[in-house]
Write a structure and sequence with these properties.
The complex is a heterodimer of chains A (about 140) and B (about 425). By secondary structure, chain A is mainly β. Chain A contains 2 helices and 7 strands. Chain A has 2 domains: about 45 residues, no CATH class; about 90 residues, Umud Fragment, subunit A (Ribbon). With about 425 residues, chain B is of the alpha+beta class. The chains are: A mainly beta (about 140), B alpha+beta (about 425).
Chain lengths: ~140, ~425
C-alpha cells in the first residue's frame, strides 16, 4: 500500500516547541510556520481531550476485522457521544467490552469477527457506554 | 461582581474510582482501606447503608464485610490522584475560576456565567460533563458564600429529589436548610466547638447564624465570626483561610503573569511544596502521597494547551519539607515541557495520617528551638553517609517499607503494564 510521509517525529521528549516561535509576534507569522518549526507529537494526532481520554488494552480477537488485535492499546475518548457505527467500549453484564455499536434497526454490540456472536441489547435494558474508541496503537514489531 | 460559589464534590470518590474500570461493582458495597490496610477510609453509599463506620479498624468490621460480600480495596492513591486531576481539568475547561480544595472537591465561581442559563442548569451541565468525560459522579452546591455552598452540596448529596444540584442563592431557602442542619455539620466548626455551642443552647446552623459575630469571636475565634457572616450570605472566607481539609493539603494558584521558563516554574512548585509541608506540620500530620500539576490556560486562544500531573508515594510518611521537596521536584521534571505559557501550578499532599504526639512535639520545636533543625540535619548526615540509618521511633520504617496493600487495584491509568483489559 502507498505510504505518505507526513513529517518526522520528535525525539523521546514529545512536543518540543522551539522557543523562537514566540519572537515572530511582531511580524506577520505564516499560518504554516507552526508546523515547520516544531516536531510532531502523536498525542496531538490521537488525543483531543486529555482529561477525558483513557487507554485500555485489547484482549481476545473479537474485533480483528476493524484492526484491533490482542494486546493493542485502544485510545478511548469519553467526551464523545457514541453514534451508530462507532467502535465503543461498553459495559455489558458488569464487564467492559469493545464492540461496534449499532443503533438501527435495534441496539446491538457487533463483534468484528465472524466467529464471535453479536450482543443484542434487549429493549428497555440500559446500555452504559464507557467511551468511544478513536485510535488503536498496534505494534508491528514483536519484542 | 458578587461571587456565586459552586462547590463541586465527587460522590464517594475513592469508591467511584475503583468502580470506573470494574462496572460489576456498580451498586455493590465497596470500602477502601487506609495505608497498611489498617482502617476504613472510604465507603460507597451501599457500605454506608450496611452500617460500616468511617475510620474503623479493619479487624473490627471484617465479619460485617464478609457477611455482606463487601468489596475491599487497599487505597490506590496513584489512581485517585490521576482521576482527581482529570476532574479538575474538566472543571477548569467549564469555568475560569476554579479553586481546588481537596482531592475530590473544588470551588467554582459562576459569577457572570448565569446570563444565558439558570444556575441549576449550569450545575447540571457541570455534573453531566464531569460524569461523561471522566466517569465519576459529582454533586454541585451553589450559594453566595463557600460555607453555604458546602451546605448546599451536602443537601444535593442527601436528597435524591435534587438530582445532585442545589441552588441556595435565595435567603429563604438558605434559612430553611440552616434550620434542619446540625451546628456540627457546618464547614469549619470542629467537634469541640460544636460541643461548646450546644452547651450554650445553639444546636442548629440557623441558631448560630442569628448570633452576633463580634460577640462570638470574643468567646470563640475569628473563624467563627467569619462562619456566622458566611451563613448570612456575606462572603469572607478566602482560599488561604479556608478551614483545612482533613484528607489532603493543597497549595495551588493561578499566576497573574504566565510563567514560561523552567527555573521560575520549578521555584514556584518548590514554594508551594514548602508551604504545604509547613501546613502539614502545623496540623501535626504526615503525608505519603505527593502530587504536582502544571497547566496552561484553557481560555487563552493564543495558547497551545498543555496540562499534566504526576504523583508519587514517599517510602515513609513524612512532614519533612526536604523529603517532600525531593519527590515534588522529581515529579515536576517528569511533567515539565518547554514552550508553553503556564497559567497555574499546584502541589497536593495526601494519604495523611496523624504524626503522633512524640514526633509532633519534637518538630513543634522547629519554630522555637534552634536545635531541632540541627537534629534533622544530623539525622540526614547519618542517613546519607551510607554507614547507618536513624529514624524517629514513631516512623516504624520496617513496617512501612513493606506496606501491606493486599487488596490493591491496578494503576489503571498511570502504568502501561496495568491498563484495563477489554475483551
Amino acid at each position: 500500500m502507498p505510504v505518505d510521509k507526513i513529517g518526522s517525529s520528535g525525539e523521546c521528549q514529545p512536543l518540543d516547541i522551539p522557543m523562537f516561535l514566540e519572537s515572530v509576534a511582531a511580524g506577520f507569522p505564516s499560518p504554516a510556520s507552526d508546523y515547520c518549526e516544531r516536531t510532531l507529537d502523536l498525542n496531538e494526532l490521537c488525543i483531543q481531550k486529555p482529561a477525558a481520554t483513557y487507554f485500555v488494552r485489547a484482549q481476545g480477537d473479537s474485533m480483528i476485522d476493524v484492526g484491533i488485535f490482542p494486546g493493542d492499546v485502544i485510545v478511548v475518548d469519553r467526551s464523545l457521544t457514541a453514534r451508530h457505527g462507532d467502535v465503543v467500549i461498553a459495559s455489558f453484564n458488569g464487564e467492559l467490552t469493545v464492540k461496534k455499536l449499532e443503533l438501527q434497526p435495534q441496539t446491538r454490540l457487533v463483534a468484528m469477527n465472524s466467529t464471535h456472536a453479536d450482543i443484542v441489547v434487549p429493549e428497555g435494558a440500559e446500555l452504559e457506554i464507557f467511551g468511544v474508541a478513536t485510535n488503536v496503537i498496534h505494534s508491528l514489531r514483536k519484542p | 461582581m458578587k461571587p456565586i460559589y459552586a462547590l463541586v464534590d465527587c460522590n464517594n470518590f475513592y469508591a467511584s474510582c475503583e468502580r470506573l474500570f470494574q462496572p460489576h461493582l456498580e451498586k455493590q458495597p465497596v470500602v477502601v482501606l487506609s495505608n497498611n490496610d489498617g482502617c476504613v477510609v472510604a465507603r460507597s453509599k451501599e457500605s454506608k447503608a450496611l452500617g460500616v463506620p468511617m475510620a474503623v479498624p479493619l479487624f473490627k468490621v471484617r465479619p460485617l464485610l464478609e457477611k455482606h460480600n463487601v468489596h475491599v480495596f487497599s487505597s490506590n492513591y496513584t489512581l485517585y490522584a490521576d482521576i482527581s486531576s482529570r476532574v479538575m481539568r474538566t472543571l477548569e475547561e467549564l469555568c475560569p475560576v476554579v479553586e481546588i480544595y481537596s482531592i475530590d472537591e473544588a470551588f467554582l465561581n459562576l459569577a457572570g456565567m448565569d446570563n444565558t442559563s439558570t444556575l441549576v442548569d449550569l450545575g447540571q451541565t457541570i455534573r453531566h460533563t464531569v460524569y461523561q468525560h471522566v466517569g465519576v459522579p459529582v454533586c454541585v452546591g451553589i450559594a453566595p458564600t463557600k460555607t453555604l455552598s458546602k451546605l448546599a452540596n451536602h443537601g444535593a448529596k442527601t436528597y435524591p429529589a435534587t438530582n445532585g444540584v442545589v441552588d441556595l442563592m435565595e435567603r429563604e431557602r438558605q434559612q430553611r436548610l440552616l434550620n434542619i442542619t446540625d451546628v456540627g455539620e457546618i464547614w469549619g466548626v470542629g467537634r469541640r466547638t460544636a460541643e461548646k455551642l450546644r452547651n450554650q443552647g445553639i444546636t442548629t446552623a440557623l441558631q448560630l447564624s442569628q448570633r452576633n459575630p463580634q460577640q462570638m469571636q470574643r468567646r470563640y475565634s475569628v473563624l467563627l465570626n467569619r462562619i456566622i457572616r458566611e451563613l448570612n450570605g456575606e462572603p469572607c472566607i478566602t482560599l488561604d483561610d479556608s478551614p483545612p481539609s482533613r484528607q489532603q493539603l493543597i497549595c495551588s494558584r493561578s499566576f497573574g503573569e504566565k510563567i514560561e521558563d523552567y527555573d521560575s516554574l520549578r521555584e514556584t512548585v518548590c514554594e508551594f511544596t514548602a508551604r504545604a509541608s509547613e501546613k502539614l506540620r502545623n496540623g501535626r500530620q504526615l503525608a505519603r502521597l505527593v502530587q504536582v500539576f502544571i497547566r496552561t490556560s484553557p481560555f487563552d486562544p493564543r495558547d497551545i494547551c498543555y496540562s499534566n500531573s504526576a504523583s508519587g508515594i514517599l517510602p515513609i510518611a513524612s512532614h519533612d519539607t526536604r523529603d517532600i521537596l525531593h519527590m515534588a521536584t522529581k515529579l515536576f521534571d517528569q511533567i515539565w515541557k518547554s514552550g508553553y505559557r503556564y497559567a497555574k501550578a499546584g502541589v497536593m499532599l495526601g494519604d495523611l495520617c496523624d504524626a503522633g504526639n512524640h514526633q509532633a512535639g519534637l518538630f513543634d520545636a522547629n519554630h522555637s528551638s534552634p536545635h531541632s533543625e540541627e537534629l534533622m540535619q544530623a539525622m540526614d548526615r547519618i542517613n546519607h553517609s551510607g554507614r547507618g540509618h536513624v529514624w524517629l521511633g514513631s516512623q516504624r520504617p520496617d513496617k512501612d517499607w513493606f506496606m501491606t496493600r493486599s487488596h490493591l487495584s491496578p494503576a489503571y491509568t498511570t502504568r502501561w503494564d496495568s491498563l484495563p483489559l477489554i475483551k
